Amino acid sequence: MEPISADAVASEGATRAPLGWVEDVLPGYEAKDLGAPTAYPARADGELARTLVRRVDLPEQVCGVALVVHGYNDYFFGVHLADALADAGCAVYAVDMRRAGRSLREGNQAHHLDHIAELGEDIGDAARAAVADAHERTGADLPLVVHAHSTGALGAAVWAHDAPDPALAGLVLDGPLFGLPMTAWQAAAMRMVPSLARVRPRQVVVPAPSPYTTGLIERGWDFDTRWKSPAGVGATAGWLAATRAARRRVAGGLDIRVPVLVGSADSTGPDRLDNPRHGSQDTVVDVSAIEAYAPGIGEDVELLVVPGAIHDLALSADEPRAVYLEAVRAFVIRVLS
């Protein structure tokens, strides 16, 4: 099989991926087109696609299904996280959601959203496909654990409240976007975003580059910079309004009926490469918002604060990453037992 690649999905002749599994860009993985969304279709944005990725090797004893959900300016490449989930007994899958990574198509405005439910639809469709595929591979009806990061974690939390998959047994939120570090001026400007989003939803409001992503490269992480760009992805008015509304829902409390593990760094700092703690604190989201709102999203919520971790705890330095992955492994084993 020819592997799916960034060049292939971006080319005009590859706007539709094959219906079956094909070799992925990651060795030992396969990818499959999930088709276009139906509830929240494109609005003059080119074709929308979603991609399901699966780890080919299964654990000797499969106890559940794990679905990995990426964040903003992101896609699935974390094979070390997948390995930890497999060690916990999971058949591992991941989704590249609409306008992201393997699912980017010509004309798409990367990572744009009009409503947080767009992410929920992509997560739900991927969850159903993953559970069904794992049933075909194992012959068993398996419980599901979702591991979601940042904006994907915000979307997964709202999805788990609004329309969770019946197989959902647990949820892991890695550095969820429950709040943004903002000055008083930025907070005042944010209040005007919903009005702008109603008339110009695709207007780029925050075009800043991503020192966070540059720092990951400098610390040795390897990923496709066309899908996770150091130049950043301009945040649109629609995305800002959608995530703001979702954060307000989280702040008001959710009712997630399954156990939730919420992972957070121990501090937030400036996203600048001259920040001496750039590689040991969250430089993207406000961790105080995670601490404040996580207890209110469900009845069984464990908040894990990892000293020295960064925004994506699974991409932290060796010691905090090991602490986080072991906690995820233990949580998954608990909820699947």
Subunit arrangement of the protein:
single chain
- CATH domain class: Alpha Beta
Query: What general outline do the C-alpha atoms trace?
Result: globular
Tell me the strand order in the biggest sheet. 1-2-3-5-4-6-7-10-11
Count of DSSP E strands?
11
Largest sheet: 9 strands, mixed
Helix content: 25-40%
> Which homologous superfamily in CATH is the superfamily?
Alpha/Beta hydrolase fold, catalytic domain
CATH architecture: 3-Layer(aba) Sandwich
Question: What is the rounded Rg?
Answer: 18 Å
Cα separation of the termini: 37 Å
Order of helices and strands: HEEEEHEHEHEHHEHEHEHEH
Q: What labels would you give this structure?
A:
337 residues; alpha/beta; Rossmann fold; 9-stranded mixed beta sheet; two-stranded antiparallel ribbon; disordered N terminus
Task: Provide the fold topology.
Blueprint: H1 6-10, E1 22-23, E2 29-33, E3 51-55, E4 64-69, H2 79-87, E5 90-96, H3 117-138, E6 144-149, H4 150-162, E7 168-174, H5 184-190, H6 193-199, E8 204-206, H7 211-218, E9 235-236, H8 237-252, E10 260-265, H9 287-293, E11 301-306, H10 318-336
Parallel strand pairs: 4-5, 4-6, 6-7, 7-10, 10-11
Antiparallel strand pairs: 1-2, 2-3, 3-5, 8-9
Helix pairs in contact: 2-10, 3-4, 4-8, 6-8
Concise structural overview:
The protein has helices at 6-10, 79-87, 117-138, 150-162, 184-190, 193-199, 211-218, 237-252, 287-293, 318-336; strands spanning 22-23, 29-33, 51-55, 64-69, 90-96, 144-149, 168-174, 204-206, 235-236, 260-265, 301-306.
Could you characterize what this model shows?
The structure is a single chain. The chain is α/β, with parallel strands linked by helices and 337 residues long. It has one domain (6-336): Rossmann fold (3-Layer(aba) Sandwich). It has helices at 6-10, 79-87, 117-138, 150-162, 184-190, 193-199, 211-218, 237-252, 287-293, 318-336, and strands spanning 22-23, 29-33, 51-55, 64-69, 90-96, 144-149, 168-174, 204-206, 235-236, 260-265, 301-306. The strands form two sheets. Strands 1-2-3-5-4-6-7-10-11 form a nine-stranded mixed sheet, sandwiched between helices. It has a two-stranded antiparallel sheet with strand order 8-9. It is globular. It starts with 5 loop residues before the first helix and ends with a helix.
